[in-house]
Design goal:
By secondary structure, the protein is α+β, with helices and mostly antiparallel strands. It has 25 helices and 22 strands. 44% of the residues are buried.
Length: 828
C-alpha cells in the first residue's frame, strides 16, 4: 500500500513538472473516451437495456391480426394457447378540454387485458382491466403519472373526477406509475368501445409504436416459446382466411406473426447506432495510439533516469509498476474528463438527434455507462502504458547511462512508431471515407425535389371531435357493434362541411395568404398511412391513398399534368372520380392514356366501387426523399404511386401558403379557428422547410456525427505524425549535422525528412483504402445516389488526408533544414 501511495505521489509530481504533456494526454483520452461513452450510453439505453416491464422477454408484438367479427376483435386469436394475455391498442391524440385553452395530448384506446399484458398496476386507483370486469362501469380513463403531475399538480383527488377528451367526459379511475407511457408517451388510456358507449375518436397525429393504427401486443405463457406462438397464429390465420374467402372470394388475407416487443420498438434504429459505435471506436483507437506514442517519446527521454535507478538496486518489477501507475493516473483523469464530455454528448444527441429513435429521450448516464467509462479508462491505462514500460525496461544500461539511446531510433519508417502512424492514418481514412459518403448522400437527398413547394408554406394540425361534429346514427332497433361504432375516417356532411367552408373562407381572406387547404396526411409529415385494394389497368395492388380538400394541389404547388383536380363540390362519393399521380399512371397504363380510365377500389366500405380518373398530378415524395419511398404492395408499382380522394377529415392538417414569412400568420389563423370553435386546438405547427428537415433528420444526424468523428480523427492523425517526425528529427540531430557538414543542402534535408514522413502517410492511405472497401459495405443501406466505394469521395478524402500529413511533415522538416552543423556536431 505504501508503494502505491508513493507511486501516486510520484505520478502527480511528474505531471506537475510537465503540465503541457499531461494536459495533451488527458485531452486526447477525454475525446476518445468521451465520444465512445456517449454513443455507448445511447446504444445501451436504446438497444441493450431491457424494457422496463416485468419479464420483458415474454412480451411480443403480434402483427397482422385482423379483426374477427363480433364485439371482441381478439376473440379469434385468443384461441392461441401460447399467450397468457392478448390486447389491442390504437394510439393517437385527443383534445383535452379545460375551459381555458384546449390542448392536444397523446391518447390510446386499449382493449381488455392491455395492462395485464404488461403486468403493471396503477400507482393510485385502478387500471382499465378492472373497469372492463365491471359491466355497469361508465366511461373511464387512466392517466399517466407525468400528465397527472403536470396538469393536476399531483392531486390524488383527481380520481373520480371527469376529464373532457374530444368532447366526451371520462371518469379518471387510476394513475399509472412513473415511467409507464406505452405506446410512446401516452397521457391517457381509455377503453375500447362496448355496447354502452362509442369509441373515443383519436387522430394519428402522435407518433408511436403503432403508427396511429390498431396494433396487438401479447404476453407469452410461462414456458411457451416465440416459435410456438408463431406457429399457432399461422394456423389460426389459415383457418380464418378460408372462412373469409367463403364470404368474400376476393379476400386476400395477409401475413400474421409475432416478434419480440423490444425488437419491434427499436426497428430500424439498431443498425445506425451500431455503425456510430463502430465509428467512434475507431476514434478511440486513434486516440490510444496517439497517447501510446506520446508515452513512448516520454519513455525514451527517461531512459537514463530508469537506468540510474536500476543500477542503484531498484527491481524491474517495481519500476514497471510505477510506470504503469503513471499511465493509469493519466487514463483515469482522461476518463473523468471524458465522462463529463459524454454527459454533454448524450444531451446533444437527445436535442439534435432524430426524434423517432425509441427510448432516446429516456437515456441517461446510469451505473452501466459509468462502469463502461471506468473500465475503458483502466483498460486504456494498461494498454497505452505497457508497451512504453516494456521498451524502457528492455534497454541497454550502459548505452542509456552514456545517453546514446536516441541514436538507436533508426530510420523513421522503421519500428513501432512507424507502424502506429500507419494504423492511425488508415483508420482516419476509413472514418473520413464514411463521413464523406454520408455527407454526399445527404446532399443528394436534399437536392431531391419533394414534388411540392416549401417556400413560405406553413402547416398545422387540428382535430374535430366526432361526438360534436359527426355523431354516428345507428339503425333503429339495432345494437351497435364494434365495427359500426368505430370512427370513420372522413365525412363531408353536417357541421364538418360547415366548419371547412368557414375555415377556407376565413383563412383565405387573411392578408398575405396565397392559398390554403387541408389534408388528412402531409407528405413527409411522419404520419403512417395506407390505402385500399385496387384494380387499375395492368395493376392489382394496395397503393398509397391521400385524402385532400379542394385547393390542396394549389396550396402545395403540385402541378396538374392532365385533366382537373377536386373542386369545392366534390365529395368522397364515387361519382366524383379519382386523381392519380404520374407514377401510378405509368405503372397501370404503360404507354397509354390514363385519363378517363376506370379504377376499382374494394375493401373500404363506402369507398368501394369504380371511379374514373379525372386528373393526373405530379409525383410527390411521401415517406422519404430517398429511393425507399415505396408504398405499393403489388407487382410493377413505381415509387411515388398514389391516388387522391376528396374528403373533409375530422383530423386534418391545415396548409397555408403566404407571400412572406408564414409564421406571422399563426396568431391570426389561431384566432379564426377559435372563433369557429374555441375547443379545437392547433398543434404541431411547422413550416414545410421544417417538415423536410424533420424527414432528413436521421441521415443528417449520421452525417454530422461521422463528420465530427472524422475531423477529430484527422486532427489526431496529423498531430501523431507531426510528433513522430519531430521526435525523429530531434533524435537525428547529430546525423543531420554530419550530412550538412559533408555538403548536404537545406533543401536536401527538407526533402529527406518530408519524404520519410510521407511514406508512412501514403502507406496508411493505401491500407485505409483497402479497409474502406469492407467497412463501407455496412453503410450501403444508408446511402442515396452514391456507391460505397465512390472514386470521387475516395480521391477527395485521400487528398485531404495527404495535405494534412504533408503539413505535419513539413513543419519539423523545415526546422531540420535550418540545423546549424557546428551545433549539431556537438549534440550528444
Amino acid at each position: 500500500m505504501n508503494n502505491l501511495v508513493q507511486d501516486l505521489r510520484f505520478a502527480f509530481r511528474m505531471m506537475g513538472k510537465r503540465p503541457g504533456y499531461a494536459a495533451a494526454v488527458i485531452l486526447v483520452l477525454a475525446l476518445g473516451i468521451g465520444g465512445t461513452s456517449a454513443i455507448f450510453t445511447v446504444v445501451n439505453g436504446v438497444l441493450l437495456e431491457p424494457l422496463p416491464y416485468k419479464n420483458p422477454d415474454r412480451l411480443v408484438f403480434a402483427g397482422g391480426l385482423s379483426q374477427a367479427s363480433g364485439t371482441d376483435p381478439l376473440a379469434w386469436w385468443r384461441q392461441a394457447k401460447s399467450f397468457e394475455a392478448l390486447a389491442t391498442y390504437r394510439s393517437g391524440g385527443a383534445n383535452l378540454g379545460n375551459g381555458i385553452q384546449p390542448e392536444r395530448i397523446p391518447c390510446a384506446i386499449v382493449s381488455k387485458d392491455f395492462f395485464r399484458v404488461f403486468q403493471i398496476d396503477a400507482r393510485f386507483g385502478r387500471t382499465l382491466d378492472e373497469v372492463f370486469a365491471e359491466a355497469n362501469e361508465g366511461p373511464a380513463a387512466v392517466i399517466s403519472y407525468g400528465f397527472w403531475a403536470r396538469t393536476f399538480a399531483s392531486d390524488k383527488g383527481v380520481i373520480g373526477k371527469q376529464v373532457d377528451l374530444n368532447g366526451r367526459f371520462f371518469t379518471v379511475v387510476g394513475i399509472m406509475p412513473p415511467g409507464f407511457g406505452f405506446p410512446g408517451h401516452t397521457s391517457a388510456w381509455v377503453p375500447r368501445a362496448r355496447e354502452w358507449k362509442e369509441d373515443l375518436d383519436i387522430g394519428s397525429d402522435v407518433q408511436s409504436d403503432a403508427g396511429g393504427s390498431s396494433a396487438t401486443v401479447g404476453r407469452l405463457r410461462e414456458g411457451a416459446t416465440l416459435e410456438e406462438a408463431r406457429a399457432e397464429l399461422k394456423r389460426l390465420n389459415q383457418i380464418q382466411v378460408e372462412i373469409e374467402r367463403a364470404k368474400q372470394p376476393r379476400y386476400a388475407g395477409g401475413y400474421v406473426g409475432a416478434r419480440p416487443m423490444k425488437e419491434f420498438m427499436i426497428r430500424d434504429s439498431s443498425t445506425g447506432l451500431w455503425v456510430l459505435l463502430g465509428a467512434v471506436g475507431f476514434l478511440l483507437v486513434i486516440a490510444c495510439v496517439n497517447v501510446a506514442h506520446m508515452l513512448l517519446v516520454r519513455a525514451a527521454a527517461r531512459q537514463k533516469e530508469v537506468a540510474v535507478r536500476l543500477c542503484m538496486g531498484a527491481s524491474r518489477g517495481r519500476i514497471l509498476l510505477q510506470l504503469l501507475t503513471e499511465s493509469m493516473v493519466l487514463a483515469l483523469l482522461g476518463g473523468a474528463a471524458g465522462t463529463l464530455l459524454s454527459f454533454a454528448g448524450v444531451r446533444a444527441i437527445q436535442a439534435f438527434g432524430p426524434k423517432d429513435v425509441p427510448r432516446l429521450a429516456d437515456v441517461n448516464l446510469d451505473l452501466r455507462a459509468l462502469g463502461f467509462a471506468l473500465g475503458l479508462s483502466l483498460l486504456i491505462g494498461v494498454f497505452v502504458g505497457f508497451a512504453p514500460a516494456l521498451q524502457i525496461m528492455a534497454q541497454d544500461l550502459t548505452r542509456a547511462l552514456k545517453q546514446e539511446s536516441s541514436r538507436s531510433v533508426g530510420a523513421l519508417r522503421k519500428g513501432l512508431r512507424g507502424a502506429m502512424i500507419v494504423a492511425e492514418v488508415a483508420l482516419t481514412l476509413v472514418l473520413l471515407m464514411g463521413a464523406g459518403l454520408m455527407i454526399r448522400s445527404l446532399d443528394n437527398l436534399l437536392r431531391t425535389p419533394p414534388g411540392f413547394t416549401t417556400l413560405n408554406t406553413i402547416t398545422m394540425d387540428f382535430s374535430l371531435p366526432r361526438v360534436k361534429y359527426a355523431p354516428p346514427v345507428p339503425a333503429q332497433g339495432s345494437k351497435k357493434t364494434f365495427k359500426e361504432t368505430a370512427p370513420a375516417v372522413n365525412t363531408t356532411q353536417g357541421r364538418v362541411g360547415d366548419f371547412y367552408r368557414q375555415l377556407s373562407e376565413g383563412i383565405g381572406s387573411l392578408p398575405g395568404v396565397i392559398s390554403a387547404s387541408e389534408t388528412e396526411r402531409l407528405p413527409l409529415g411522419g404520419k403512417g398511412g395506407g390505402g385500399l385494394y385496387l384494380t387499375a389497368g395492368n395493376c392489382k395492388a394496395i397503393v398509397q391513398e391521400m385524402d385532400v380538400a379542394s385547393g390542396y394541389f394549389r396550396a402545395m404547388s403540385i402541378p396538374v399534368v392532365a385533366g382537373r383536380v377536386f373542386g369545392a363540390g366534390d365529395t368522397e362519393d364515387a361519382k366524383f372520380g379519382i386523381v392519380i399521380s404520374q407514377a401510378m399512371a405509368r405503372s397501370c397504363w404503360p404507354g397509354g392514356e390514363a385519363l378517363g380510365k376506370s379504377v376499382e377500389l374494394f375493401g373500404g366500405g363506402l369507398r368501394e366501387g369504380s371511379r374514373d380518373v379525372i386528373g393526373i398530378v405530379g409525383d410527390v415524395k411521401f415517406h422519404g426523399l430517398g429511393d425507399e419511398d415505396v408504398f405499393a404492395w403489388g407487382p410493377g408499382m413505381a415509387p411515388g404511386s398514389v391516388y387522391y380522394l376528396p374528403a373533409k377529415p375530422l383530423s386534418a392538417t391545415l396548409i397555408v401558403r403566404a407571400v412572406s414569412d408564414p409564421k406571422l400568420l399563426v396568431a391570426a389563423i389561431r384566432e379564426r379557428i377559435r372563433k369557429l370553435d374555441a375547443d379545437v386546438p392547433l398543434y404541431n405547427i411547422r413550416t414545410m422547410n421544417e417538415v423536410v428537415s424533420d424527414a432528413t433528420a436521421e441521415p443528417r444526424f449520421r452525417g454530422i456525427a461521422l463528420g465530427t468523428f472524422a475531423v477529430l480523427a484527422l486532427v489526431l492523425a496529423v498531430f501523431g505524425l507531426y510528433s513522430v517526425v519531430a521526435y525523429s528529427v530531434t533524435c537525428r540531430t547529430h546525423e543531420l549535422g554530419v550530412r550538412m557538414a559533408l555538403g548536404a543542402q537545406p533543401r536536401d534535408i527538407l526533402a529527406m525528412v518530408t519524404r520519410e514522413g510521407m511514406w508512412l502517410a501514403l502507406a496508411g492511405i493505401a491500407v485505409g483504402a483497402l479497409g474502406s472497401y469492407w467497412t463501407n459495405k455496412l453503410l450501403a443501406s444508408f446511402l442515396y445516389g452514391v456507391k460505397p466505394m465512390d472514386p470521387a469521395t475516395l480521391a477527395a478524402v485521400a487528398g485531404i488526408l495527404a495535405i494534412g500529413t504533408m503539413a505535419a511533415c513539413l513543419l519539423p522538416a523545415r526546422r531540420a533544414s535550418r540545423t546549424d552543423p557546428s551545433c549539431a556536431l556537438r549534440y550528444e
